[in-house]
User: Fold this.
Amino acid sequence: MTAFALAPPSYEEAVVSRHLTWPSLVAPYVPATDYPSLCLVCRRFNDVFTPLLWRDPLVTIRKLGLDPADDFTWYFKFIHKRAPTTKYSTRAHVLSLDFRQMARVSYHYRGESAITSTFRFVPTLFPNLRCVLLDGDAESDAHALQSTPWHALGDGGLEVLSLSGCQFLLGSTFFEGSEGLRALVCLDVSGLPGSIRPLIGAAAGLPRLRILKARGRELGAGDAVDLAKAFAGMLWSLDLGDNPLPDAVLPHLRELMMHSPSLRTAAHVEVEGRVEWMSQRGTSQFGPFYHVVESSQSGTFSHPARYLADSPSYHGDQEGAAPVRGDGRAAIKSDSVDVVKQAVTADPEASPSVAEAVLLAAHSNAASLCLTHLRLSNTKVTAPGVEALIRMSPGQLEIVDCDSMRIPLKLSWPRPWPKSTRLYGMLGSSHIWRPVFSSNLRALRIHHSVVTQIPTLEAEGLSALNRIWLAETAVREKCEMAYPQAFVPDMNPRITSITLTKIPRRSSGPLIEKITNFIELASIQERDIADATISSSRRAPMMLRGLRHISLEFEADPMEDLSQLSLSGDLDVEGLLDMDRESFTFFDEGPSGRDARSREQRASPQDPNPIDNSRFKASEGVVLEGECIVHTDKWLGNVFRARVWVGTGVPGPHPAVNAYMDLVRSADLRKVIGVASPSQVRAGVPTGSLLFLDAWEAIVVPAVMREPGRGVLEGMRDVVAELKRYRVATRQAFAAEERRVGKGRVRRGAPHYFYTGAVEVVAVDSANRGSEYWR
Assistant:
């Protein structure tokens, strides 16, 4: 009796299984080491287990226990001796050659790589080959790949080709005239040296390509724009991470989304609010003047129906049906090479729903496709650029990956801040991830500042610990003042997975509090969904699952090098000689300090609504109409005049507005206009107003630079350890409640606040090696 590799199938799985025989039913649960023996039992067993044994031979042989030191010896014999003498019907079962698990040992045959030397006749040996994965092979020769007779493959041709990290150039003839590559569905050319122009020129010869990964190709604006144009209307997944892409590329990426009608309808106004286009105008920097019009409960994310899944959409089965708004419950369609490989090779261990979704999207009419998976991590795009991209999309994006974006500030940092000071992250943009803008969004990988309101601070001459401390104290206080609304789970219950990136490993407290509060809110969402679920009726509406996976990606621990800690060595020495007394302080004087008190003393005017017109120089030609400046701008080549709100000029009860009214006096900060976001409205801006965005963004620049003592920096806590301690405490509280009321009867949320979803922590050490700490 063979042992099961996985848990046996449930009764429901067995009853509804599409397999007709019990060997087919149990096959996915049988360990690969038993395949050879089972193939010899009888013809019926042979028909079931021979395809499993031969489907992916390089992966199977590793499961069978082949020593990595014998990889090439075995492979050479397999290709040159065993396979040619095996009957055709058996060889036809080979669907994938996955070299990623092969030992990375230099081995050559007749002066070339042992692997690529076999490619010239691999298609003739395995006529149904569908997947070739060579990731990281530094020995492979492109000439052998280019001369491979892919046309010898049977009906369909190669569907998955992954060359990520290989060290050879793909010439202009690689894709040309090869009928066997016309069937490619998934192509990964990440990390290859040389130009990507050959792929751009071959776009017309790849009509079924749906997933393209081109990370780390040194793509500039020109090549990236041409790539987007060449594959417009074809791709539903595009990965351009690790490329120096500027914002100029983003408008062309929108063209990949325009094959979908807008999913922003009036059907969910009460729950989600609605998007309105003010006066049909906009600017090149901001885009159309879209803004959110809230219902009575959409702005507080408290509508009773916010957890209801959408009712099914009924439409014809005709090929080329337009994308529709998902119900929020379906499995997330994966674009990973592994999942696509499983789908293409009909791997029985693959999730049927995901595999079917991948294949359906892969083989659908290209005219109906639009981009749903976009990855732009580690590029040069800015936060406003990404925000404009999401705002102007039709709302069909399902997966967004953008881990770090520069926050462009027009205001120079005052001394003694280093001139090289930069901020990275995304502030004040939590509304673009709401269903009102991103109704199909299911998975988000984004800089942690979307949740924590703490950007990453970069500055030459400041130690890592000093930068972390300044970011979560002085800079955070300004960010919270300017953008008081952070992302919380209930902003979009349709999101099931969120990954927060670039998280500092050390904190003096605020960062830890922000992250633990987010996990607690996820626990409260669990409770609310459970309370809203009506399980007693078969006709009860379907509920959303809510946030089920939180991943936290940490930076290296700066505490490993305490020699970096210093006081005066971190400062701009020349600036210290010239700075005013108020520009630098060793005291922890926050918003309640001297500056804040002086603002409060000034914020008591006799007239409740005075307007100070004297703050603008007459020589600047400023035209004031009440609390607005009349500003001239262009939209689609047409000049228009807009009334941009600048406030009364007299301090009031909103600190962010007071700071904005002071900054907007500078003509250099009155260049870019846009509509006030929900976060800015919460900070005191009138709803629907136009703002000078460059003046508002400058609020986050602190006027002073506080320097902590060495003891403060050395006392900063390990965020991973604190989160683990919090997780253990909530788990213990949950267990105690379970003992009190009985197993299976504990309600989610209060009083234990244990989040039952997956919490994954990934950190790196000083050698930049990743590790998972706990779940």
